[in-house]
């Protein structure tokens, strides 16, 4: 009842255009007829208030008694006064107040909002310093304070381990931005503050007497020019591109980024082999030695020698075996192809190879170390893999078997993996993965795995390595299951240890892959897509815990066993808490998310026999209807210009 009184007061104070009066009928805010208001069914308290763009004008004071409020979205109104009243709402997690006329300072007791996940106060008139107490948010993912009138020294955001997105641009802040912080959040997050300094492109810091403190030196830019405003017009993700990949271009260290993209001549990589191997490889040295060695020309010629000698020495049996009616290219074409390393997995290294015809692109997995699999067996397994054709399973186009080399040639999928979409670049420039896309990716992956299980229902061949990095996206954003059949190549005794899929509990005893364990892994994948948390497959209990990071680690530990964490949160009544905060921006999807959550939880029941089959999972996912794209209600402008399903993300 008190919440109803508080909201009624809020309406009377702010609803100058009568927008709320029209939409709030009845005398109970929790009666579900109050638009934009959601309550907890058990406590009958207001937990969500979502009233964006309603021309509300007035203070926030009456909201201070809503101490069960978790989600507050009042962006794009004309609200004024201070944000201080909200510090009483100690359950707040997601606060969107951008685009109002809020003024005053951010109070020091903002630290009472310990559960804050996302705080957006951008585009207001908030002044004063950013209080150090903000560093006490241990679960925070996003802080947006851009376009205010904040002054004083910038807090040491490097202490906020959980923070993924920070924007303090266009304020009047000063002080040193550490190198790590600048790199993590990107220069655009600090632009428009003439007093900030640090490493390039910020001006270099010099030390002068601090006018604010007689004891300490103030750090000021040597030449106070902020990052040019012209570079700040669009918050686009940075694409560290590498156009025109040529054979022989060996390594490109992408500007300031931890990830190193290695571009190798595939032919070179293939022919050179490993240092410790015999044959052509040992003649040429290792790929690594090639990396450090001479220039492009030299490597190109090395490649030429190696490629030809190996190709011509290939026996009739050591040839590319295609699963397509017409042979598309020769081994020699593959050896000549320009190649780019896409990544290393548990069984080998994958290269993108662009053939000289300029139109054929394939992904080539070069299996690592002497695979014990004899030729006959290998060929049989390839037959099994190559036979399976389905729109949601990555197609094996061809393979090559020689004593020293085993290559698997797959169709190339240009849009990365579900893993990189979910977890890549959670910082600034992150392209959110919307609900419609997530549902369609989960459905595609479910169909692909169901097909595998159905095709091999008698022999019960499992996939054995279901995880988000093995769900790839084609050019239309359709999800495909990768790496089917590779578990066959691994000694069953070591398969679980060698493959990195999400493990089912029974596998700690019965060390065997199975289709039921695939279902469990798929359940974990669903939970990963719903929560946005990456399941950690190999928890290390001995991880050192510093006092300062205990709280953050507790949060992280929740992801070690994703099913366990989800179960525990759901039990505590607040289901919405499990979902990826990124999804909370979309409207009217909660029912679908909860339905999907139930499917995920059904897949991860500890008893294998109680898990559904993948065919049943497909049916259940198909029954979750997405009537309309939630994008229509999206209020994140950064997404307007891109196609979410095809959005690729950089890892760095
Ligand atoms: N057909 C493909 N098209 C495009 N990229 C691919 C293809 N197959 C694999 N990749 C990419 O190559 C990289 C390495 O893949 P790989 O399957 O070897 O490793 P992984 O999935 O990380 O681990 P695992 O070996 O356990 O499956 C990944 O980044 C993956 O997205």
From TrEMBL:
Region named Disordered: 211-235, 286-312, 628-652
Residue ranges annotated for the Protein kinase domain, each copy included: 336-624
Location in the cell: Membrane
GO MF, any single term: ATP binding
InterPro entries in alphabetical order: Kinase-like_dom_sf, Leu-rich_rpt, LRR_dom_sf, LRR_N_plant-typ, PRK1-6/SRF4-like, Prot_kinase_dom, Ser-Thr/Tyr_kinase_cat_dom
Major localization class: membrane
Superkingdom of this protein's organism: Eukaryota
Membrane topology: Single-pass membrane protein
Keywords: ATP-binding, Glycoprotein, Leucine-rich repeat, Membrane, Nucleotide-binding, Receptor, Repeat, Signal, Transmembrane, Transmembrane helix
Pfam families: LRR_1, LRRNT_2, PK_Tyr_Ser-Thr
Protein name: Protein kinase domain-containing protein
């Amino acid at each position: 009842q008190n919440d109803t009184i508080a909201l009624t007061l809020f309406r009377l104070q702010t609803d100058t255009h009568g927008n709320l009066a029209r939409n709030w009928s009845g005398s109970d805010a929790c009666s579900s007829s109050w638009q934009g208001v959601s309550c907890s069914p058990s406590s009958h308290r207001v937990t969500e208030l979502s009233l964006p763009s309603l021309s509300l004008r007035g203070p926030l004071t009456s909201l201070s008694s809503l101490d069960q409020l978790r989600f507050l979205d009042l962006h794009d109104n004309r609200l004024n006064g201070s944000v201080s009243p909200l510090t009483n709402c100690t359950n707040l997690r997601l606060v969107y107040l951008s685009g109002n006329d809020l003024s005053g300072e951010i109070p020091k007791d903002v630290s009472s909002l310990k559960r804050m996940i996302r705080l957006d106060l951008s585009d207001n008139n908030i002044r004063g310093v950013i209080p150090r107490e903000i560093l006490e948010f241990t679960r925070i993912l996003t802080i947006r304070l851009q376009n205010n009138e904040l002054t004083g020294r910038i807090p040491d955001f490097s202490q906020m381990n959980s923070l993924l997105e920070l924007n303090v641009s266009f304020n009047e802040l000063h002080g040193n931005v550490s190198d790590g912080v600048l790199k993590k959040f990107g220069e655009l997050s600090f632009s428009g503050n003439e007093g900030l300094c640090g490493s390039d492109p910020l001006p270099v810091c010099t030390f002068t007497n601090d006018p604010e403190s007689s004891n300490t030196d103030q750090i000021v830019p040597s030449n106070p020019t902020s990052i040019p405003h012209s570079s700040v017009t669009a918050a686009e993700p940075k694409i560290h591109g590498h156009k025109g990949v040529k054979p022989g271009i060996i390594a490109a260290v992408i500007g300031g980024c931890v990830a190193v993209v290695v571009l190798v001549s595939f032919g070179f990589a293939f022919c050179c082999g490993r240092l410790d191997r015999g044959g052509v490889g040992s003649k040429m040295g290792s790929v690594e030695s090639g990396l450090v060695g001479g220039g492009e020309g030299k490597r190109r010629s090395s490649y030429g020698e190696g490629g030809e000698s190996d190709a011509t020495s290939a026996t009739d049996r050591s040839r590319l075996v295609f699963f397509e009616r017409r042979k598309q290219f020769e081994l020699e074409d593959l050896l000549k192809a320009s190649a780019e390393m896409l990544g290393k997995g548990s069984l080998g290294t994958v290269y993108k190879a662009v053939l000289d015809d300029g139109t054929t692109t394939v992904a080539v997995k070069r299996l690592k170390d002497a695979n014990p699999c004899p030729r006959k067996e290998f060929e049989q397994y390839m037959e099994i893999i190559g036979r399976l054709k389905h729109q949601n399973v990555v197609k094996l186009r061809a393979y090559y078997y020689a004593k020293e080399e085993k290559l698997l040639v797959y169709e190339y999928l240009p849009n990365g993996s579900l893993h990189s979409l979910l977890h890549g670049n959670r910082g600034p420039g992150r392209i959110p993965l919307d609900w419609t896309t997530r549902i369609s990716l989960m459905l595609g992956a479910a169909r692909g795995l169901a097909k595998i299980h159905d095709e091999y229902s008698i022999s019960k061949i499992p996939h054995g390595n279901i995880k988000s990095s093995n769900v790839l996206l084609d050019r239309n954003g359709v999800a495909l299951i990768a790496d089917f059949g590779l578990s066959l190549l691994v000694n069953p005794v070591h398969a679980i240890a060698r493959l990195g899929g999400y493990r089912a509990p029974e596998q700690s005893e019965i060390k065997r892959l199975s289709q039921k364990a695939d279902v469990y892994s798929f359940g974990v994948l669903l939970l990963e897509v719903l929560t946005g948390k990456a399941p950690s497959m190999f928890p290390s209990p001995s991880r050192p815990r510093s006092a300062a990071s205990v709280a953050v680690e507790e949060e992280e530990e929740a992801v070690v066993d994703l099913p366990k964490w989800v179960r525990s949160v759901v039990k505590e009544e607040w289901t919405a808490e499990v979902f990826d905060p990124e999804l909370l921006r979309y409207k009217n999807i909660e029912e679908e998310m909860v339905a999907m959550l139930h499917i995920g939880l059904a897949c991860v029941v500890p008893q294998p026999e109680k898990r559904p089959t993948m065919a049943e999972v497909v049916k259940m996912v198909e029954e979750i209807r997405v009537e309309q794209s939630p994008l229509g209600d999206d209020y994140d402008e950064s997404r307007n210009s891109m196609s979410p399903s095809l959005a690729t993300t950089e890892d760095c």
